[in-house]
Structures are given as C-alpha cells and as structure tokens.
TrEMBL record:
The keyword Protein biosynthesis does not apply. It comes from the Bacteria. It holds the Pfam family HAD_2. This is YjjG family noncanonical pyrimidine nucleotidase.
Amino acid sequence: MLKTKISDVFFDLDHTLWDFEKNSALAFETILKKHGIRVDVAEFVAKYVPVNSRYWKLYQDDQVTQEQLRYGRLKDVFDTINYEISDETIHLLAEEYIHYLPQYNHLFEGTIELLNYLKPKYKLHIITNGFNQIQFNKLKNSNIAHYFETVTNSENAGFKKPNPQIFHYALEISKSNKETSVMIGDNFEADIEGALNVGIDAIMFNEHNIEVAEDIKQVNNLLALKNYL
C-alpha cells in the first residue's frame, strides 16, 4: 500500500509508458536502410540497447554531454560490429535517429487503459531525463500529451534524475506536495531511489523482474498499478 492518500502521480516516460526499445528499433531500421548501411538491423539494435543504457548512465551522472551521448553510443556499436563508417556519417545518423525516433509511437501494453483509469482521480505528470523537444514529440505523436498537467525534463529543470532538484522542480511547477505524490518509473536509481530520497513514494515498473529490495513497491504490468491507485 502507499503511505498516504495520493493526489499527484508522476511518471517516467521512456521504458515506462513509451516503449523505447520497440520505437528505437523501428527508427534504426528506417535510417540504416535509407543510407544503405549494410548491417544486420536486429544485431545492431541488440548491441545498441546496453550501449545506450551505459551512455545514459554517464549522461545522468554528468560525465558526458548530450552531443557525446548521441555520437558515442552509435560509434561504439559500429566499432563493436566491426563496421567501418566515417564520423561524418555517424553524426548524420545521430541527427536522423533523433528525427525519426518520435515518429514511432508504440506504448507499453495497458498504457491508455491505465491513464484513462487514473485521469479522473489524480493529477498526472511526467518527469523525464529526455530532451525537451523530443519528449514533447513522443507525447504528442503517441496521443497521450493531454493526460498530463505538467512535463518536467532535465533541460527545463537544469538537473537530471536522481538529483533531488529535478523532483523539487517538478513538485513546484505542478503545485503538488511530496507527501501526497507518487513516482512511477523503470529505473531503480533514477526514478525510485531519486524519488524516495526526497520523500516521494515510488513504485517501480519492473517489466524485466530485476531483483530489488523487498520493501520496494513494484509491478511488472502497468495495469497492476490499479492495485495501488
């Protein structure tokens, strides 16, 4: 059970509501084919997933810039599969990937049903480490923007999850209180620990059943959140 009566529900976006892996694979399929890059798309995407996660952790910890993230994750994958490609082409692919990614709009199973269930009962919000325009496009193109009262991202907040300041910023612009709020996300460190450390209750969307401490509230299906909210 949640600690108190909840009025505001904060969601992470990528990997929580918006199916990043599926949409990312479709974007890569489009741009690699467009530029005649002869690689096995399935292999490329399989290599990309852990590399991207590593770069986002570095970005989250302020160890790489946005530009280094976008270039480095692609450079590392091409190096891993021993595919020779120029830096100029990598930079072009990085830009095109960002352009095409929000054009695909697969959501996790149960997202719309859950949001329809929650919307009449709570104020809903987004807190994301993603980039402002891209995250806006994802919300708009997947037809879920209208569910959310506020969207906090690391660009407008000036801080990234799990930094306490991004949560304080989100509470401030949403005019909500930490005691009556809950954070839902897939990343244990950024979403769950980040929220708990500032006194916001949290539920982990644990689709892959990662082992976490017994006292962490978790679901592996979005509709199971109805048991808490």
